[in-house]
Design a protein that fits this description.
By secondary structure, the chain is mostly helical. Helix content is 64%, strand content 5%. The protein has two domains: 64 residues, Rubrerythrin, domain 2, CATH 2.20.28; 186 residues, no CATH class. A hairpin with a 6-residue loop joins β3 and β4. The radius of gyration is 23 Å and the shape is globular. The relative contact order is 0.12.
């Protein structure tokens, strides 16, 4: 019996008769170095990788005579350095804009539109530099494969439910860390007062595209080619959370897991970008419709009604269930 599985990078079907779980293979389609997974399916199909034991010996001899290839980029430490570099660039550009603002007597560094531009420049610059390190095509690192529009409904349901649950978690954090969380809330709301369009630009346009290209594109794609799917998802979500403030950490971590799961199942950044846009847009709309009063932020945190929490968990569970069903339908089935 042969083992059958799919390349996590390009969905190419791989069948091998003479390799076992844990052995290394190279995808003929995208060239990614893969490990035969434990969950590989047994099949009687002809091998698409190696057809005989002699071919394995020949392949091993050829591999031994060739120089050792570098592992897919980035690994965990490399990803950490990427994030550190981006933050250093953001700080440098913010200081530069602050100096220019002092000259023209206008607080440029505090305007949300300029904050958006600073983040855009820093992330895009690093992405351009690190793209060359992947030694892959643009579509492989930043796949924008179209998805079925029917998938948007369960994704949206999941997001709404997650937002309700995360709102309560954020309230809990404000109880655990009083004072500091209110300062962050005041800063966040002050962005809306300075410029609504600038805040919308930062939250709904720049952040979704740049952060998804970075975390679900460059970083998660590299992790999936080096580590197990679970490890790749969890570590990429952790780095995504660390990229945000301590008050957003838990929310960003859980959202990072959800977005990474969508990427693994669809192999496209489009649902991740969509989810990021919807999440940030709902926050923006909520604050516009029900603007919180700064003075109220000093009062004890108030949790939402129990019925709203129940609705949140129901929507979250329903959205995940529908998404799983939809993923099974749209997944490229192995014959």
């Amino acid at each position: 019996m042969a083992l059958k599985f799919k390349c996590p990078n390009c969905n190419e079907k791989i069948v091998t008769k003479f390799l076992k779980a844990g052995d290394t293979v190279e995808c003929k389609k995208c060239g990614a170095e893969l490990t035969v997974p434990e969950h590989a399916t047994q099949t009687s199909e002809e091998s698409t990788f190696l057809n005989s034991a002699s071919e394995i010996a020949d392949s091993a001899a050829t591999t031994a005579s060739q120089p050792t290839q570098s592992k897919p980029y980035p690994g965990i430490l490399q990803a950490i350095w990427v994030i550190i570099l981006i933050n250093l660039l953001i700080i440098s550009l913010a200081l530069l804009s602050g100096a220019i603002g002092a000259i023209i007597n206008y607080p440029l560094h505090k305007h949300p539109a300029l904050i958006a531009i600073v983040n855009l420049v820093a992330i895009v610059l690093v992405l351009v530099i690190d793209f060359g390190n992947t030694k892959a095509r643009f579509q492989e690192v930043f796949p924008l494969t179209p998805i079925k529009t029917s998938l948007l409904f369960p994704l949206t349901i999941t997001l709404i439910g997650l937002m309700i649950v995360l709102a309560e978690m954020t309230t809990l954090i404000s109880v655990i860390i009083p004072g500091r969380s209110e300062q962050f809330a005041k800063y966040f709301i002050s962005l809306f007062d300075k410029s609504l369009w600038g805040t919308a630009l930062a939250l709904v346009v720049v952040a979704p595209f740049t952060e998804e290209f970075l975390f679900r594109g460059l970083i998660l794609r590299g992790f999936l080619n080096r580590y197990s799917i679970i490890k790749a998802i969890l570590v990429s979500a952790l780095l995504f959370a660390l990229f945000h403030s301590i008050f957003q950490f838990l929310s960003a971590f859980l959202a990072g897991i959800l977005l990474a799961w969508w990427f693994v199942k669809t192999r496209s950044l489009l649902p991740c970008i969509y989810g990021h846009i919807v999440n940030n847009a709902l926050i923006l709309i909520f604050i516009i419709i029900i603007p919180p009063k700064i003075s109220d932020l000093t009062e004890p945190a108030q949790f939402g009604p129990l019925w709203l929490d129940v609705v949140g968990f129901v929507l979250l569970g329903l959205g995940i269930w529908l998404s799983v069903r939809m993923f099974k339908k749209i997944e490229i089935a192995l014959p």
